[in-house]
Amino acid sequence: MGFKKMKITSKFHFNSPVILTFVIISFIAYVLNIFTYGRSNSLIFSVYRSSMSNPLFYIRLIGHVFGHANWSHFSGNTIFILLVGPLLEEKYGSWNIAVIIFFTAIITGIVNIVLFSTGLLGASGVVFALILLSSITSMKDGKIPLTFVIVAIIYIGGQLYSGVFVQDNISNLTHMVGGILGCIFGYVLNRNFSRKI
Question: Which residues touch 140 (CB under 8 Å, ≥6 apart)?
Answer without folding.
Answer: 194
